[in-house]
UniProtKB/TrEMBL annotation:
It is a peripheral membrane protein. GO terms for cellular component: cytoplasmic side of plasma membrane; cytosol; ESCRT III complex; late endosome membrane; multivesicular body. InterPro entries: Snf7_fam. This is CHM4C protein. The gene is Chmp4c. It comes from Notiomystis cincta.
Length: 236
């Protein structure tokens, strides 16, 4: 079992010693008070060092005994100052370690609470029921999709037809309309005109309104020749 496990489970000698000890907050407060006290002691020693240097400068070689005594005191103050620097470094390291330990303890405690809450939430959950529920949800989604597809399918309303058949029917309708229009056309009657009193310039061909073919056809040419023979006989 690790030291962390022993600490949190209350086992081992460290736990038995810490049962009656101060709380982390109390220990941190004591360490901060100690740091503040040592910082003030540093300021005092630095002031005394400056004062002893001033005394040594004042006496100099004129009063060697007094100058040397001042320098000795300065050395003792500097030694104490160095000791306080080391002590402050140790206390700072201990305070940071204690703060980190306290933070980790709170984090683990809160994580334990969260784990217990999750366990309580999951107590009434059955994995088999969850699988069945998810399967039911999937099936209902498939049914809903099929219903949506059926509603949106145009073939359900008979809208799908063969376009080729529709085009053939449309062409038949157009042809019927065209034939009907041709039957309704009334052709004008052939005008009756008298022949001129003297030969004049006659048309090369005689059109009839009942025919649409051009006068260059064989039948039309024969009719024209008959008409010319009659005119020639009349003129003679």
């Amino acid at each position: 079992m690790s030291k962390i496990s022993k600490f949190f489970k209350g086992g081992g000698s460290a736990a038995s010693k810490g049962r009656g000890g101060p709380s982390p907050q109390e220990a941190l407060a004591r360490l901060r008070e100690t740091e503040e006290m040592l910082s003030k002691k540093q300021e005092y020693l630095e002031t005394r060092i400056e004062r002893e240097l001033a005394v040594a400068r004042q006496h100099g070689t004129r009063n060697k005994r007094a100058a040397l005594q001042a320098l000795k005191r300065k050395k003792r103050y500097e030694k104490q100052l160095n000791q306080i620097d080391g002590t402050l470094s140790t206390i700072e390291f201990q305070r940071e370690a204690l703060e980190n330990s306290h933070t980790n303890t709170e984090v683990l405690k809160n994580m334990g609470y969260a784990a217990q809450a999750m366990k309580k939430v999951h107590e009434n959950m059955d994995l088999n029921k969850i699988d069945d529920l998810m399967q039911d949800i999937t099936e209902q989604q498939d049914v809903a999709q099929e219903i949506s597809d059926a509603i949106s399918n145009r073939t359900a309303f008979g809208d799908e037809f063969d376009e080729d058949e529709l085009m053939a029917e449309l062409e038949e309708l157009e042809q019927e309309e065209l034939n009907k229009g041709m039957r309704d056309v009334r052709l004008p009657s052939v005008p009756s005109t008298s022949l001129p009193s003297r030969p004049g310039k006659m048309p090369a061909c005689h059109f009839t309104f009942l025919m649409i073919k051009p006068c260059s056809s064989t039948r039309k040419r024969a009719e024209d020749e008959d008409e010319m023979k009659k005119l020639a006989a009349w003129a003679s």
